[in-house]
Amino acid sequence: MERVEEYLEAIYDIQMGEKRVVKTNDLAKKLNVKPSSVTEMLAKLSEKGYIEYQPYYGAVLTQKGEELAKRIKRYHKIFETFFSDFLGIDSEEAHKLSCELEHHVTDEVAEKVCEIIANTCKICESCDFGLVRLDEAKAGKYEVIATPASTSSLGIIPGKIITVKENGVVEVDGEDLMISQKLASRIFLEKIRD
Q1: pTM attached to this predicted model
Q2: Domain 67-117 is of which CATH architecture?
């Protein structure tokens, strides 16, 4: 399936970028494969309903193919943003890792990463996630959404309701805890509406 997705992404890039039918030679060049391999794959993609393909004319994505290509491209952007902006990995390595991961994640995994990067990313036109990092949270009650595994010994786990107080103090199960700035920047919360 990974190879199918790579072809669909390449077709999408050419089709959307150049606003034209995608030729066999375009794909061979972009994917660094032989034209005969492209022709074989285009026939398979057509059989599966991902593209409309006519030999010697070219290919265009069907709605089904475009939806899959967009999903994979979105996954790539999510992970690239997570790796580079959130984890501080250099852009070349972030791109490489994202290329590998984009084909192997589920919507659920992508959504969880979206929750983490929601406040800083510009991937979607609108975002449903109203998360805040603990180090930026105002006083009030919050649900823990994402946190490093190391906080479980403190009782801070996903789904736990905590109270953020002043000066970095957090109340968990009736006990006040001081959380370091570094750790607080890795804990994501969602405000509980009164």
Answers
A1: 0.64
A2: Orthogonal Bundle (1.10)
